[in-house]
Write a structure and sequence with these properties.
The complex is a heterodimer. By secondary structure, chain A is α/β, with parallel strands linked by helices. Chain A has helices spanning about 40-50, 75-80, 95-105, 110-125, 140-155, 170-185, 195-205, 230-235; strands spanning about 1-10, 15-25, 30-35, 55-60, 65, 80-85, 160, 190-195, 205-210, 215-220. In chain A, strands 6-7-8-3-9-10 form a six-stranded mixed sheet, sandwiched between helices. A four-stranded antiparallel sheet of chain A has the order 2-1-4-5, covered by helices on one side. In chain A, helix 6 links the parallel strand 7 and strand 8 (about 190-195). The longest helix of chain A has 16 residues, at about 170-185. The radius of gyration of chain A is 18 Å and the shape is globular. By secondary structure, chain B is an alpha+beta fold. Chain B has nine helices and four strands, in the order ααβαβαβαβαααα. In chain B, helix 2 (about 25-60) packs across helix 8 (about 215-255). Chain B is elongated and about 105 Å long. Chain B starts with 7 loop residues before the first helix and ends with a helix. The chains are: A alpha/beta, B alpha+beta. The interface of A and B includes residues 77, 81, 83 and 89 of A.
């Protein structure tokens, strides 16, 4: 669950990244966060993962108050999150299985549980037969599915995907979005930051649009709820 | 999900695997620790041998306090109390002048030529043993200050020569140890820095999935321990072999003059010190590198 209330973020160099952002994503829901470069999307992700602290306003992520959270508690917040990046961030020297298992080892899960859980999530993302392959041997779509499996493996309650299809062709992008929808249907909250206009339109999910550090629209059934189509196009391209 | 309680096995495994990802720097770290400990150990052993020699000299090196000839036997014996009050004096043995003469004659090749000499030509004396040979000059002065002591004979040259040599060795040791310790720490710090750099992607992923700071940092500390500990063990074994070789040569060529301490006499404390320093350099180098280069 995410709740941002009147959040401002001003960086040390004076850049005003967010100017009073408020939105809520309830447990088990799905939303796209869209906006042009420099609109504040990345800042929102950094705030949600605890990489930066808000200048003003309140942020609650999975029950953790990001204004008062202590450094030593951050790892425990991050264990409730699964983060997916545009560039996959896989370890090339490790196999698919090891890449996914690595996320479990990092939080000290027992070997027995790793052996049970990793094949399950690889099957969920359709990579059970690629367990022994290494990332360079996989296509972009497959690599991103490994990243999804890694994000899922510790059973997070919230998945944050930062431009997860930025490096993929439309067909592979649709696969990833469909996979994220499937994960959402299994009960995990999902927030996807994206520029994929056609796909956002196709999936008919909630779309939160941000521009200039402010939320400019929040539609429950795709971006066509926006009134200003010219602005929608600018946001989504 | 169930969490492991004991992560030591994981840290050691990660520490070992990290060593081989930057083999050359790891090798350099171990080599510098070996060089440092062998040099330090050599100075320690040299110093221990000098101390042993000085100890022998302290046992054998005596000061002769010759008593004023005008004092009676009883008065001469009475001086012993005052001599024993001197701080560095261990024991004092009274030698009657008659015994002194007999002893003198006994050491001569042809004792008969002294048959007509009266014992009154010699003087009463005390053979004085000291605690610390370094203070022998001061003790000599203190003895001369005792009323009734006419003259003091002490052989200062050998004892003071060894004492001076030991001081020089100690000063050189401290300087060399300080320099080598700094170099070892520097190289260890760079090795661990390189390790953190090579594993930066893994570190970023670990942070992202919620690994704690200690979980991320401990493998690097273990890497330092492994490098430092390996260096210490290799240095100890090398020094042992080297010392045995040198000791055998010294005993062969200088038998009867110089004795060498058996390595077994110093091996345990030396081993403990080596391992402690090896682990300390490993942990210190890791600590510096992690605080400086690994912000988690």
């Amino acid at each position: 669950m995410i709740r941002m209330t009147d959040v401002f973020k001003v960086y040390g160099n004076g850049t005003k990244a967010l100017k009073g952002v408020s939105f809520t994503l309830d447990t088990g829901r799905f939303a796209f966060l869209v906006g042009p470069s420099g609109s504040g999307k990345s800042t929102i992700i950094k705030l949600l993962t605890g990489e930066v602290a808000p200048t003003e306003g309140e942020i609650i992520v999975n029950g953790y108050d990001m204004n008062t959270i202590k450094m030593r508690k951050l790892p425990f917040l991050r264990r409730t999150l699964g983060v997916i990046f545009q560039d996959f961030r896989l370890i090339d020297e490790k196999t698919v299985y090891e890449n996914v298992a690595f996320a479990m080892r990092a939080v000290s899960v027992t070997n027995k549980e790793i052996r049970q859980r990793v094949p399950y999530v690889l099957e969920l993302v359709g990579l059970e037969d690629k367990a022994k392959s290494k990332p360079p041997e996989l296509s972009g779509g497959e690599q991103q599915r490994v990243a999804v499996a890694r994000a899922l493996v510790n059973n997070p309650s919230l998945i944050i995907a930062d431009e997860p299809t930025g490096n993929l062709d439309p067909a592979r992008s649709l696969e990833i979005f469909t996979l994220l929808q499937k994960i959402n249907q299994l009960g995990t909250t999902v927030l996807v930051v994206t520029h994929e206009k056609a796909l956002v339109d196709k999936l008919h999910e909630r779309v939160v649009a941000i521009d200039g550090g402010r939320i400019i629209s929040d539609g429950v059934d795709g971006y066509y709820n926006y009134e200003d189509e010219e602005k929608q196009n600018r946001i989504l391209h | 999900m169930k969490m492991k309680r004991n992560r030591t096995g994981y840290y050691i495994k990660e520490g070992f695997s990290s060593i081989f990802t930057h083999g050359f720097m790891s090798f350099a770290s171990v080599c510098i620790i070996i060089a440092f400990l062998i040099i330090m150990g050599s100075f320690v052993l040299l110093s221990a041998n000098i101390n042993d020699l000085i100890g022998v000299l302290e046992d054998e090196n005596v000061v002769l306090a010759i008593i004023d000839e005008n004092l009676s036997d009883e008065e001469a014996r009475g001086i012993e109390t005052q001599i024993l009050r001197i701080p560095n004096v261990s024991t004092a043995e009274f030698i009657h002048r008659q015994d002194a003469l007999y002893s003198f004659i006994g050491r001569h090749e042809n004792p008969n030529i002294f048959s007509d000499i009266d014992y009154t030509v010699t003087r009463h004396r005390f053979v004085v043993y000291v605690h610390n040979v370094e203070l022998i000059a001061q003790t000599q002065d203190d003895l001369l200050g005792v009323q009734g002591v006419a003259r003091v004979n002490a052989n200062l040259q050998v004892a003071q020569g060894l004492v001076t040599f030991r001081r020089v060795v100690n000063v050189i040791s401290v300087v060399i140890i300080a320099v080598l310790l700094s170099i070892s720490l520097f190289i260890m710090t760079n090795t661990i820095k390189l390790a953190t750099f090579e594993r930066r992607e893994e570190i970023a992923i670990m942070r992202m999935v919620g690994a704690t700071n200690s979980f991320i940092r401990w493998p690097f500390v273990y890497e330092g321990f492994i490098l430092g500990g390996s260096g210490a063990l290799a240095a100890f074994a090398s020094l042992w072999a080297l010392y045995r070789l040198v000791a055998t040569r010294v005993v062969t060529f200088e038998a009867g003059f110089v004795s060498v301490i058996p390595f077994a006499n110093v091996s345990l404390p030396l081993f403990v010190v080596f391992v402690a320093i090896g682990l300390g350099v490993g942990a210190g180098g890791s600590g510096i590198a992690l605080n400086k280069y690994l912000k988690v």
